[in-house]
Amino acid sequence: MIWYFLYPFRRTTEAPVLAPTHPLRDGLSRYGSYAASHVVTTLLVSVAVATMLIYPIPFLFTTDFINGASNLPHHAWTVAQPLPYGAAIHPDVMMRSIWVHSSYMQALDKDLLISALDLQDELLGSTEGFNPSRGRREDRLIPQDSVLDLSPKQRDAFHAINGLTNQSWFFHSPLQYWDCSRERIFADPDILTTVNDKKNQSTSVNVTLRHSIVFSGKRFEERRLTAADALVITLVYLRDSPIGRQWERKTAMLPDKVADKWDIYPPDGCSSASQLYEFHFRPISRQDSVILSIAYALTALYFFMSLSKLRAFKSKFGLILTVLTQTAFCLMSSFTICAIFRVDLSRIPRAAYPLVVLAMSLENIFRLINAVILTPPEDSTNSRIGHAFGETAYTAIASSMQNVILLALLSQWVSPGVSAFCIFAAIAIVFDLFYLSTFFLSVLSVDVRRTELSDALAKVSMRHNRAVSEMNARSAWELILQGKMTMSTRIASTIIILGFVLIAQWHFFEDDTIFHFLGRILRGSHFADTSSAEKSSLDTIHQARSPKSWLRMQDHETAHEIISIIKPTAHSYVARVYEPVVFVMKGADRMPHLKEPTLLPAAYDFINHQLTQFMVIVVVILAAVRLLTNYLLWEEDANGDDHHLDGDALLSIKSFPGGHVLDVAMMTASPDGHVVSVGLDRIIRVWDIRPGGINYILSDGDKSEDAPFPVFAMTIDDGSRWLAILSSYKAALWNLKDRRWGPTLPVDLYGQKPEAFFFNPSNEHEVIPRLVLVRRNGTLTEFIPETGEGEDFGICRSPLTCVRPLFEPSKPASPGRVSLVTASRRGCVHAAIRESSSWNSRGVELDGLGDDDVHQVVPLPLLGLYLVAGAGCAHLMNLDDDSLIHTFQTERMAPRSLQCVHSPRQTTQSGTGGLTWFTLCYTESESGDCILQTCMPPEEGDLIWYNCSATPTRRGWCSWESAKETRRHVENPGTWNVLSDGSVVGVRQKSGLNHSILSEERRRPNGLRHRSPRKELSRDVFGRWEVWTVFQAGRATMHETRPLIQDDDKAGHLIVSELGPMVKVGQKTVTFSFGNVVKVVTVGGHERFEDGSEDQAREYMKTGSRRRKAPMTRPRAWS
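Structure tokens predicted for Sterol regulatory element-binding protein cleavage-activating protein:
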């Protein structure tokens, strides 16, 4: 709502969108990612808080208001409230009372009870054995002389039990527990027991002598009254009652009679000050029931309509159960807090409370779910949840703060019953945020992790993007009616809360209008306190509860009973309540020696008597929930999907030591989780990095003369079945499935490392795919492993510097094809396409290409495009005709450092493809920074028309020229790699550390023998290495660092100055060597390794990665 008030300044009603780098959004995104990666912990925290706040409810609430516990709401509107001074209302009854005090909190002393009985008899006449029904047959005669007292029989004749007239009266007094008998009071051995046993005793007019109406300043323990500060004797009479005039006359005479025993306030005994109070007890009407039913029906309709649009949930019943559970947690937690702090919620019908909580919860829940659905489905679960939470949480927080402030202000202007409801709603808003960010977020992250939901999210995202152009062309109302667009509910909860507050206020002021109510707010007139703030003479006697406070907390059941006496057909009555005449026994000590408890007495009883049992129950419930979550998630655990539900951070690091004695010099990997490493110890080892995987030695060069050493290159085929190892004079094939050697091909490399070595999967009928070897001199050799034959083809006449294969996937209209893109020392670029029996190579003609210092080509097989990288630019080319589509201007690029990743290709109904983002990642040549350069559509939901340089004319599309470009710098990146979701993961040495230790080791002639860290140096040597990850600009905002080597993981590591080779495995995992140890880093949760996945990793050559010396840069911190 605040955004509507700010419309004249902002010219929009939409909530502001914080930048991904904003500290608030970044912090919320980090928390969302953490909660998603620690699901069980987050869930247990929410369950623990809910249990601690729900379990005490039976001990804090009761239907009996007099025992120190809070009262549960009923199906009625109840309130006891003062009316404004000068209100033109004729009271239904008058109330006069006397308060009798002894020492502080000593009102249940026998001597005080006897003395109070004397005062009562002085005012009303003898009340021993009071039975007014005996005066039913007496004539109602009023003495001619007004100074004469009524006889007991005359007095009883006017009692309300004998017929209601304008002269009727009745009273209630604590002395009625003993039938107003002096002898019974003296004979009572235990006053406290009598008071507690007779708390439900009724008077002759069926008014229950509750402790709340006959005592003031009560103290409770174990739901029993243990002390009271004052005895309250109250006379209730109608306008013409002679008993009221007698009471008024007699109280004025008491100071002269009892001044030697009592201090009286006011001193003259005349209580002329009075105020009108309304006591309201209205059962919920048929009209109220209809309104509430309509409100619940509309809420359910909104919920199920919103639910029907969500195709991404595996179990909609589970979502319904989760929402209802969160609502119950929020509702009961708020009730507990209100009870502890003595907020009386019994004045509003109980049916209203769940409605308000639901209205607040659903708004935030569906906003979060829709944000998750709109996140790229290829992102990791942690990234998706964190990004969605960071995008929506600050809006939810702002909206909640706005509602809390609004409710706090309203609570000062409305009636006491509605004020308590405002306090409850404000507390419920806070708990709704808490349970949304813990309970619901953990359940949502579990659902998102499941494969079924991930697939559905991808389809929903594709449908959303396909329909963009159509949605823009239609009216918003048409799309809402068709269910393709949701109506904004950002202010729904605020409207519902304000509406209910106004309706509730109207119930308590039936004769008032909304305009009068709003007018009083503008004039600053409070409902809660209409009395003056003058200092009272009663302040000197330190009453435990003031008369005004005592009146406002009167039990609504008592009001209901009095209404049934004086206005049987009404739901409220107005009483003129006179200030009480207070009697304090002389010599009484009125100074409180102990501070009265602030919280509800039942809360202290719970702590004193239930704390041990409470702690045991909490522990048992947490253990049960932990076991239940383990049972419910056992399928994911068995499949290896989410066995790290409670342990995964954003970065997960695993070590595989013991495989090599010396450094690992070369690595390659397959999509299904197989990693092959070659060490300087002449050992080739195969690792299975999946959970439960094993590793084995493929070849040991020291034990076999036939071992393929030295190894120049390695590659794995698309099906992860065959491994090819290229040495100086042969290419050996190893079957990864059967673990056996295949055929050996004779090759002569003439001592030079090849530029490319890969399998050609174009012929599906071949048992072993063909091998392609590209030499530095521009010659391509294609081998047929089954026959051992090879054929040479010319690709380029210049020496090659970069060669990349391009595997285009099969399409319904055409089979997949294999291509090759090369760059040479002279700056020329060639594209070679595998045809039926040969390779057809052609030069790429592009103006100015020779002046760009071309050093690299990067294939984009899923798009049928490739990049040509120069020193300060990257040209996007079409593979079909080598036409230029777009030129990206970059910063000065280090040679062969460019990597590229993009969103999945979205295909519309017209067959046109589009992208939601496109990222270039490279190393800046001067500073050594890693730069993420991202292109995105300027409007959310649009697509980039990637395969054409022309500007699209249809809505929902943008060209490369109009795409929004953002850049993010990572300083001191070390060795890094780009993952398929656009994130970058790297390993580096922390900046600003002293490297003298390592230099000292280097200078020693026998340093190789002492590369195992000494105890005193191990912390300095390994502590500076860390793993980092960062997401592309404009996307998820999380970035995280983590030590590469933990304190308990240092054994077996060698001291190194730089990392070994790094290769990508699967969608979000990289593996690299740290000396002789193979390490695996996964970003954003557990990796699902798949055979033959159409991974964007195939855009890069799957040949072995060698360790190469990184350019020297000064250490810097990354931003």
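The first strand starts at residue 61 and ends at 62.
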